[in-house]
């Protein structure tokens, strides 16, 4: 199985591309990852803060020409 680096998506993003990058890394559809994130926000916990931290520390995907 080929591994991919954890990067934010440039093309398949809604806000910052974090969920799309995590989905690509996990082998999921980005829409599924977004739903998991939205549903997890209904539970108590630091989900939103984790998203913000990932937004800051995850590099953007490099453009392929």
From TrEMBL:
Subcellular location: Cell membrane
Record's keyword annotation contains Membrane: yes
Segments crossing the lipid bilayer: 35-57
Keyword entries, A-Z: Cell membrane, Membrane, Transmembrane, Transmembrane helix
Main location per the UniProt record: membrane
Coiled coil: none
Membrane-topology descriptor: Single-pass membrane protein
Domain Phage shock protein PspC N-terminal: 5-61
Record's keyword annotation contains DNA-binding: no
PANTHER family hit by this protein: PHAGE SHOCK PROTEIN C
Protein name: PspC domain-containing protein
Organismal lineage: Bacteria, Bacillati, Actinomycetota, Actinomycetes, Pseudonocardiales
